[in-house]
Write the structure tokens for this entry.
Amino acid sequence: CCCCCCCWCRCRCCCRCCCCCCCNLLFNLFFVVLLELFCAVAVVVVSCYNLHCNLIFCNHFLYCNMALENIEALNSMDASSFQKQVALLFEESPKLAALLYEKRPFVTHTQLIDIAEKVLEEQPEAERIEILSSHPRLGANRKVQKISEASLAEQSHGVVNEATYNTLDKLNQEYEAKFGFIFMEFVNGRPLNEIIPVLEQRLKNSRAEELATGIRAFIDVAKNRLSKASASL
């Protein structure tokens, strides 16, 4: 009987030891898995941060490398070369470029933009809408609509998901159906998801208000592009 009791006690001790070992093994395994998961999440976060930094750097690089000529060279260009230069500030607008070409010479690039604003004010509504439409839609798909490098850089702030693009596309269509021209907004470094409530709010305005707001934004974008390109002049 004593032998049996001893054997039974030893078995219990062995079982307890086995359970402890199993628990330790499971705990260590869990800790390793948790550590690997944490490392994976950290890698994703760092990658996203690096992507965001790269986008900011690319935006700065694109702006600083705009091939905007000095004002003396601009004044002496032929009509075709002048149009390409104006497109760096106002996008591809043959109509606006032709109007500005007749206003030469300019003292500074800032004066050129100021004169462009006055020229736009003097144009009939149809011409103003045509010039305004030289800009791409905010959130436009590059496969569907041509987008200049400057516009692409201006719209590349933050990480934008598919839902944001879909919402912008829907709202842009609604805006254009209501007013008859594109939604124009000076993004000014904001991510596209922050433009959605702006667009929703502006849908409540009158057509005259929106055309005037769009033209102001058109000029503000040109001024901002000039400020980014000035370092290379």
